[in-house]
């Protein structure tokens, strides 16, 4: 039987390696043999926190606090008291949490200036920001904690203080200054300068700020950086609270299966640990299921979120609208807006209010909501909020029988959403743009936009939206000239090459999963860049783009995504891509003619990992092109000048 002293040493080592579960079990065994000292009890509390054992975390910290107090270690006892305050707030016991804050304040009241007082100022800042909504007060406390952190050269305190001031500044409307502080703090965190706990705190709060601003690109960048930090620190995956945010980012990026996996895992890890984050995880699941068309599962998730204390709006209101319960939807969204005064929080609710009001035949309320959303977008300078405002105004214009205004607004929304790389919102805006075109009599472009919307929704698995877009397309089909005639497009052909060796290396089952990931990833990128999937045969895709630049950007994104997967997971398919702009005959949902055959032949000349294009199709832009070379294409008499795109 291993001696308690040896178990303690092994437990400390495990926690130093961030093997939280192992460290927790070893130290608990040591504690059963002979009671642990305060330092090791704090380690038990930390390991219990990371593994989702909140009650055990609190118990260990309360014992550590008593030992610190008995030893007259006043400052250290105050730090433990602050940790317990946060634990009880997370547990949903604010009265007890506040009592622990008071204990920390009394312990430090007669102490000379010290770093522990800086942490107390930091806690006061968070309470003012998150509990009271007093942004000026939060900034004042954050600046005081920053002064102390600077004086005592405490990296963790300095970073979280910068971060807290940034968060409060953003909520007050000073977005550029606030986000600059947030970015600086997050860069420190993911560079490995901070402790694991404070890195997690900074990351989670960064994504919260990004979500408030609908800054999806910044959220994605920091999520990827945080993932790399986890790998460097040998931390397996994200702890439950971080999973909620990771799920949210993956969801807006179009990786729905991965997002749902993260959200489900977060629900399991956070059960009984942190009520507010568990509720947030269930809310994310509700939105995922709603967009996927599973209304029953969405209702269940929103109900669970509500029971755990999370306002389930606007998701529940949109669910009621999808169920045909317009009156219920109006009551939900009106109540939520009546209770919410914060501009950024209202911005999340207003798009739903516009949709619901129009469905209820109340254009005036929709018009007012769209105007408020536009004002908030202008105040905070968020591209995504601006796109949401364009969509809201477009919907109002269409209801007001002003299709030309709707076209202008929807076209701008499509441009912004595509640039942000959010495929679902892009598909929604394209469906709206298609309706606007049809209303102006432009049946060709109307049908094209609706087809692109269908492809985008289907790639994501948004069943209800795909059906709605398809129905609008079919209704327009009797008049749309796009069903026949000619169109100039940039055609893309992709194909997996040299797959045999990879199949042999990873096995049939893993290969099947990899091909499924390949198809899902490419379809998401096609939708993001406005591509229309024409055909999918075997391992390849045939896609049409309205503009050559869209096709080129998409091709580069495909190759880079595959390269990232190969670097991170050790393997990924080798894909060749061919691009060619040409006129072709439109036949139903497909294209026929010489230009299509040329594009297919060009794709066949590419090697794995290459992008080959006809010279007249691409000008390179920000990408370097090879010297043009003349190639004879099978079945064609005249050679074609081709270039290879340097995408790395």
Core attributes:
alpha+beta; 29 helices
Description:
The chain is of the alpha+beta class. Among the domains are: 295-483, Serine Threonine Protein Phosphatase 5, Tetratricopeptide repeat; 486-646, Alpha-Beta Plaits (2-Layer Sandwich), CATH 3.30.70. Helix content is 71%, strand content 9%. It contains 29 helices and nine strands. Strands 1, 2, 3, 4, 5, 6, 7, 8 and 9 form a nine-stranded mixed beta sheet that branches. A hairpin with a 2-residue loop joins strand 2 and strand 3. Helix 4 (54-70) packs antiparallel against helix 5 (74-91). The N and C termini lie far apart (56 Å).
Helix content: over 70%
Number of helices: 29
Mean pLDDT: 88
CATH superfamily of the domain at 295-483: Tetratricopeptide repeat domain
Strand content: 5-15%
Q: What's the β-strand tally?
A: 9
Unreliable segments (pLDDT under 50, ≥5 consecutive)?
478-484
Taking all Cα atoms into account, the compactness measure Rg is 28 Å
Mind summarizing the main beta sheet? 9 strands, mixed
């Amino acid at each position: 039987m291993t001696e308690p002293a040896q178990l303690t040493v092994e437990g400390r080592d495990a926690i130093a390696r961030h093997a939280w579960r192992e460290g927790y079990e070893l130290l608990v065994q040591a504690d059963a043999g002979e009671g642990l000292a305060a330092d090791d009890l704090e380690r038990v509390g930390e390991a219990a926190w990371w593994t989702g054992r909140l009650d055990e975390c609190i118990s260990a910290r309360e014992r550590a606090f008593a030992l610190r107090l008995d030893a007259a270690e006043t400052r250290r006892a105050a730090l433990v008291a602050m940790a317990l305050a946060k634990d009880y707030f997370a547990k949903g016991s604010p009265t007890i949490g506040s009592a622990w804050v008071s204990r920390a304040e009394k312990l430090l009241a007669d102490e000379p200036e010290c770093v522990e007082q800086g942490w107390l100022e930091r806690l006061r800042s968070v309470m003012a920001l998150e509990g009271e909504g007093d942004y000026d007060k939060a900034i004042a406390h954050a600046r005081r904690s920053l002064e102390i952190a600077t004086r005592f050269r405490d990296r963790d305190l300095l970073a979280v203080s910068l971060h807290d001031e940034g968060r409060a500044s953003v909520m007050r409307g000073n977005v550029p200054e606030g986000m600059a502080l947030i970015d600086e703090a997050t860069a420190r965190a993911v560079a490995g300068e901070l402790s694991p706990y404070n890195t997690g705190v900074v990351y989670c709060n960064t994504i919260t700020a990004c979500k408030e601003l609908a800054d999806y690109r910044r959220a994605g960048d920091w999520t990827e950086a945080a993932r790399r930090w986890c790998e460097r620190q040998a931390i397996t995956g994200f702890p439950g609270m971080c999973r909620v945010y990771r799920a949210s980012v993956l969801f807006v990026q179009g990786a729905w299966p991965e997002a749902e996996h993260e959200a489900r895992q977060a629900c399991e890890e956070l059960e009984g640990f942190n009520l507010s984050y568990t509720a947030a995880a269930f809310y994310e699941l509700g939105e995922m299921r709603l967009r996927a068309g599973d209304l029953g599962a969405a209702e269940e998730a929103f109900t669970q979120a509500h029971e755990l204390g999370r306002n389930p709006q606007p998701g529940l209101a949109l669910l009621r609208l999808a169920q045909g319960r317009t009156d219920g939807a109006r009551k939900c969204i009106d109540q939520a807006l009546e209770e919410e005064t914060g501009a950024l929080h209202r911005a999340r609710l207003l798009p739903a209010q516009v949709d619901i009001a129009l469905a209820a035949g109340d254009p005036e309320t929709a018009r007012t909501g769209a105007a408020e959303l536009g004002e908030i977008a202008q105040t905070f300078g968020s591209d995504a909020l601006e796109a949401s405002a364009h969509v809201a105004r477009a919907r109002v214009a269409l209801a007001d029988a002003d299709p030309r205004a709707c076209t202008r607004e929807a076209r701008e929304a499509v441009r912004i959403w595509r640039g942000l790389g959010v495929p679902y919102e892009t598909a929604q805006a394209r469906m709206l743009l298609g309706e606007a075109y049809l209303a102006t009599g432009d049946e060709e472009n109307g049908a094209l936009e609706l087809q692109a919307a269908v492809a985008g929704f289907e790639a994501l698995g948004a069943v209800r939206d795909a059906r709605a877009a398809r129905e609008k397309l079919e209704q327009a089909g009797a008049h749309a000239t796009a069903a026949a005639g000619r169109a100039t497009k940039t055609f893309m052909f992709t194909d997996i090459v040299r797959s045999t060796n990879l199949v042999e290396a990873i096995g049939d089952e893993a290969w099947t999963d990899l091909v499924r990931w390949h198809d899902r990833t490419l379809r998401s990128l096609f939708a993001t860049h406005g591509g229309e999937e024409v055909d999918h045969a075997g391992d390849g895709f045939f896609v049409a783009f309205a503009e050559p630049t869209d096709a080129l950007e998409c091709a580069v994104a495909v190759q880079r995504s595959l390269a990232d997967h190969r670097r991170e997971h050790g393997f990924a398919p080798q894909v060749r891509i061919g691009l060619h702009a040409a006129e072709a005959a439109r036949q139903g949902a497909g294209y026929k003619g010489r230009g299509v055959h040329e594009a297919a032949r060009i794709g066949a000349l590419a090697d794995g990992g290459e992008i080959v294009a006809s010279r007249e199709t691409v000008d390179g832009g920000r990408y370097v092109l090879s010297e043009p070379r003349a190639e004879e294409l099978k079945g064609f008499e005249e050679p074609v000048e081709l270039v290879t795109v340097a995408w790395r």
